[in-house]
Amino acid sequence: MRLNIIRHSILVLFLLILGNLFYLQVIRGGYYAHLGLSNSIRVVPFEGARGRILDRNGKLLAQNTKAYHAVVVPQDIRDKRALFAFMADVLGVETAVVEKRFLKNKLTKFAPVTLADNLKRSQVIMIEENAFRFPGLMVLEKFSRHYPSGDSAAHLVGYVGKADPFKMNRITEYGFSAEDVVGYSGVEEYYDAVLRGQPGGRQIEVNSRGQQTQLLSVREPVDGTSLTLTVDRDIQRSAQEALSGRRGAVVVMVPASGEVLAVVSSPSFNPNAFISKEDREPVAQYLQDPAAPLHNRAVSGAFPPGSVFKIPVSLGGLEERKIIPATTYDCPGYFQMGDRTYRFPHAWGAQDLTRALAHSANEYFFHIGLLLGSDGMGKYARAFGLGSRTGIDLPSESKGSLPGLNVGRWYKGDTLNMSIGQGYVLATPIQLARLMSAFENSGNMPRPYIVLSGLAEPVKTQFTHVSFRPEVWAAVRAGLAEVVSLDTGTAHALADIPGAVTYGKTGTAQAGAGKEDHAWFAGVTRTDKSVIAYCVFLEHGGSSANAVALTKELLTALRDQGKI
Questions:
Q1: Same domain membership, residue 26 and residue 91
Q2: CA 107 to CA 102: how far, in whole Å?
Q3: 288 lies in some domain
Q4: Are residues 417 and 551 in the same domain?
Q5: Phi and psi of 362, rounded to 5°?
Q6: What is the pTM of this model?
Q7: 336 has which bridge partners?
Q8: What is the widest separation between alpha-carbon atoms in the chain?
Q9: Quick one: which of 199, 239, 181 has its CA closest to 62?
Q10: Which of 117, 136, 284, 548 has the fewest CB atoms found within 10 Å of its own CB?
Q11: Which run of H or of E encompasses 285?
Q12: 226 and 233 in contact (C-beta within 8 Å)?
């Protein structure tokens, strides 16, 4: 009896469930289907402001300005032709232009599609007044990046833009959407994850007409972190002005800490050109320019360093006791190796190490190079970080090039070329500025860095020690001092800057048949106010005298400004 009651109860419950399902799906199915189509959830995004970038004195290098953008949710569009015609009228363009933007930017039917950027106030008013006619159309407040320094800090700061296919592959890893801007080049790229804000938004329910019916939730955006750099905007600008119209690079740093005061590459570009979505002609010109203005020659460019390479060669010769400072070689303006004669523009006669450095007498360093061999020279060059990256916090740093140990098919002529920074030897301006910093610190070689504050973990000064006997440092330092102080020194033009004491090394490097030589000066300048290490490079700049002249122009400007 009891079992029958249970069976009947279960049967009744089962029938009730079936009846309810029949009611919902058959009798009222059309109603609920219409209700489902009539109401859906939309997310209206709020953009988190990108962090600002400031120089060491608080001067702006990158900032944000508010901008208004017209977007539309594809699923809510009821009449595309009418919508495109309206937006074309607002923007003053052809309807086909608006349609092309829509198709280009559309990702999914739910994701808002940008139809116009940087709207004028009058355009915002027109769209908002007519939004009821075009479901899904709305105006969003976003931020537009602006670079007050223009081309003078372009390679240092970088620029922002929509993610390219390569960066799109890393969307999940870094957590941005295809509509977000990301950093390219410079600090904008290297510290993109720090600078980029976290988006927020409104979650709303809309009906079939695309009209909001209720607000479901709100999440406030989080602004990105602002960064203060080690760079001085005025030094940066002065270096850019000195390089104007020439290909090359300038790096200035504080040898005691590794703080970089300027990173300049020329020709440069205006990072603001990448912000505009309308006029892409300047960007196209940058990409097609054979002078490669987007290439950061200061960090990413590797070139034969010429006679600057004689610094580690000299140190190695002394440390290995192959020579002493008083060792003398005849420098008659040529060097005979087998049946080949190497000729030079100056006949200096008998030279000791100090005078050989001051005059940059190639014959002298040929002798040291033959005594050390390629492995020996490479050992001391590597000790100064040549052939490896400095670790500067900028993207795409080149490590340069040095011949490997025990290289095959190596000839004495290759050894001669290596001893004067030619052949297989390539270096970057940032590497040579660090080399001079190590020399100023008697072997403490700093890791150059760009960010002064703003990171969760502040950058700390880091040194790698290069060890030589004290008398070795002293001997080479005496030669580098006479490069400037000696009347016949290759950088004597730097001797008459008031209140400044400078030492360093010039370099003229062959760039290939039919091409003008590269010109270098890497040095240290002391004043009563500061000590700076630097490298000045002119790509196809001719004689090193041209690099010295540019260095003098820059140091004089910095002295007049009270920067050094």
A1: no
A2: 10
A3: no
A4: yes
A5: -60, -40
A6: 0.85
A7: 341
A8: 128
A9: 181
A10: 284
A11: helix 281-288
A12: no
> Per residue of the chain (564 residues), what is the pLDDT tens digit?
566 666 656 666 666 666 665 555 666 555 444 444 445 666 666 778 999 999 999 999 999 988 888 988 888 888 999 999 999 999 999 999 999 989 888 877 777 788 988 899 999 999 999 988 998 888 888 888 999 999 999 999 999 987 766 655 554 444 445 567 899 999 999 999 999 988 877 676 766 655 666 767 777 888 999 999 999 999 999 999 999 999 999 999 999 999 999 999 999 999 999 987 666 788 999 999 999 999 999 999 999 999 999 999 999 999 999 999 999 999 999 999 988 999 999 999 999 999 999 999 999 999 999 999 999 999 999 999 999 999 999 999 999 999 876 567 899 999 999 999 999 999 999 999 999 999 999 999 999 999 999 998 888 889 999 999 999 999 999 999 999 999 999 999 999 999 999 999 999 999 988 899 999 999 999 999 999 999 999 999 999 999 999 999 999 999 999 999
Per the domain annotation, does 518 fall within a domain? yes
150 and 9 fall within a common domain: no
Residue 123 lies in a domain: yes
Cα–Cα distance for residue pair 106/109, rounded to 1 Å: 8
Residues 225 and 243 in one domain: no
Distance CA 321, CA 344 (A): 27
Structural element, H or E, at residue 46: strand 40-46
Q: Could you give the CA distance from residue 310 to residue 481 in angstroms, rounded to a whole number?
A: 14
Q: Are residues 78 and 28 in the same domain?
A: no
Q: Quick one: 208 and 241 in the same domain?
A: no
Pairwise CA distance, residues 68 & 479, whole Å: 62
Domain membership of residue 276 (yes or no) is no
* 152 and 176 belong to one structural domain: yes
Number of structural domains the chain divides into: 3
- Do residues 489 and 356 lie in contact, with contact meaning Cβ atoms separated by under 8 Å? no
Tokens of 458: 């502040």
144 Cβ contact list (under 8 Å, min separation 6): 64, 65, 66, 67, 117, 118, 275
What does the alpha-carbon distance between residue 541 and residue 550 come to, in Å, rounded to a whole number? 11
Q: Which domain holds residue 9?
A: 2-38
